Amino acid sequence: MKQTIRIVSLALIVIAVAPVAFAHRYHTSVTRLEYKSEDRVVEITVQTFADDVEAALSKRSGVRNVQLDVDSKTNALLLQYLSSTIVLKNGDDKLEVEWIGMELKGHSVWFYLQAKAPEGLPKATLSNNLLFDLFTDQINIVNVFNNGKKSSLTFKRGDAPKAVP
User: 11 in a domain, yes or no?
Assistant: First the structure.
C-alpha cells in the first residue's frame, strides 16, 4: 500500500513539474514580411512557439486544449486570430490576409499568409500584437523586405502601428 502511494505521489509530482520543465523563458515571434512586386502580394511568414498559440486560441475560443493541426476549424480560428493581431494597412485600407498554410517544427510553428497589395506598400503601416493577450513580456520582431530594402521593426505591448519601411 505504501509503495502504491509513493508511486502515485511521484507520478503527480512529475505531471505537475513536466510543463514547467518544457516551458520557455522568453516570449517572442519572428515575422518575415516581403512584398513581391511581380505578383503584387505581401508574403507573411510567422514563426513562434506552438504551445503559446494553442494557449491563445484556447483562451480566445473558450475551447480547452486547442491543438494546432490541419483541421479546417483550427485553420479558420488561426486565420481569425492572426488577422486580428497582425494588421497591415495601406493608407486607411486594411489588407485582407489569406491563409496559405502552417508547419509544425518541434516546439515551433510557422504560419504562411499573404495579402494582395496591387499598389505596393507606399503608405503601409503594420501592427503586430501577436500573443500580447497572454504575455506582458512578448516581443514581436518583423523583418521587412520591400522594394529591395531590408529593415526590421520590433513590437512590444502598447506600441502603436509603425510605418513599413
Answer: no
Instruction: Count how many domains the chain has.
Output: 1
Mean pLDDT computed over every residue of the chain = 86
Distance CA 71, CA 50 (A): 15
Q: Is residue 54 part of a domain?
A: yes
Domain assignment of residue 116, yes or no: yes
Going along the chain, which residue ranges are E strands? 28-36, 41-49, 86-90, 93-94, 97-105, 108-116, 124-128, 139-146, 149-156, 162-163
- The DSSP symbol for 69 reads S
The stretch 138-142 carries a mean pLDDT of: 98
Residue 130 CA: distances (Å) to CA of 14, 58, 61: 31, 14, 16
- CA 40, CA 148: separation in Å to the nearest integer? 14
- Domain region containing 69: 26-163
How confident is residue 61, by pLDDT bands cut at 50, 70 and 90?
A: confident
Grade residue 21 by pLDDT with cuts at 50, 70 and 90. very low
